[in-house]
User: Which sequence fits this backbone?
């Protein structure tokens, strides 16, 4: 087990490192993403793909702001103990999006935000926010098979409704392949796709 920390927004939690060979000279080497200048990095993928795990394993560095919806969920569950998550889900999503907008307008050089963003519309809105706040927009897509994502949801103790999950899966179909082929057709400064085990090693954002 290792204790991964993310500055400011996401509290540290013990998380097991995945087995397998390293990516850059180490068994748990994170993926490296070069982000020169002001940037907004969207970490996307179906619910349960491993977005929160990737964020918690991001190395700390000055000028980096990381936003995970788990932070809002944890806050509301403390403020409203005993209230089932489905009843506060919409408020969690709203507060997370407000936090993302405020962070993007702030002074942090790089803002990393977690959203499913399986719809092209939401990805377009994120790029629009980046443009309005003078940032380059980057996409990190986590590609997980539906059964992997469902296991991820079960592990975190929060399984979304089957109809909603099916919509996410349908919209996500083929996105990773198009990113790999360079045919996504969306104007990101850079778009990369990671499988779930690779994403679990974290993401190192470098100038």
Assistant:
């Amino acid at each position: 087990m290792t204790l991964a920390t993310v500055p400011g927004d996401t509290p540290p939690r013990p998380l097991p490192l995945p087995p397998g060979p390293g990516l850059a000279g180490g068994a748990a080497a994170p993926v490296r993403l070069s982000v020169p200048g002001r940037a907004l990095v969207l970490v996307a993928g179906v619910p349960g793909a491993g977005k929160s795990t990737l964020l918690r394993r991001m190395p700390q560095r000055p000028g980096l702001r990381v936003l995970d919806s788990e932070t809002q969920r944890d806050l509301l569950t403390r403020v409203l103990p005993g209230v089932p998550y489905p009843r506060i889900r919409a408020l969690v999503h709203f507060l997370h999006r407000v936090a993302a907008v405020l962070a993007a307008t702030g002074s942090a050089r790089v803002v990393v935000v977690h959203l499913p963003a399986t719809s092209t519309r939401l990805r377009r809105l994120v790029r629009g926010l980046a443009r309005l706040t003078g940032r380059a927009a980057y996409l990190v897509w986590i590609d997980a098979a539906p059964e992997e994502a469902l296991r991820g949801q079960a592990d975190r103790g929060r399984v979304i409704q089957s109809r909603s999950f099916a919509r996410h899966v349908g919209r996500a179909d083929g996105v990773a392949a198009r990113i790999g082929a360079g045919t996504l057709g969306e104007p990101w400064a850079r778009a990369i796709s990671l499988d779930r085990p690779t994403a679990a090693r974290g993401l190192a954002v470098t100038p």
About this structure: The beta strands are 2-4, 13-15, 31-34, 39-44, 64-67, 110-114, 136-143, 190-195, 203-206. The helical segments are 51-56, 69-79, 85-104, 120-132, 146-156, 162-172, 175-181, 196-199.
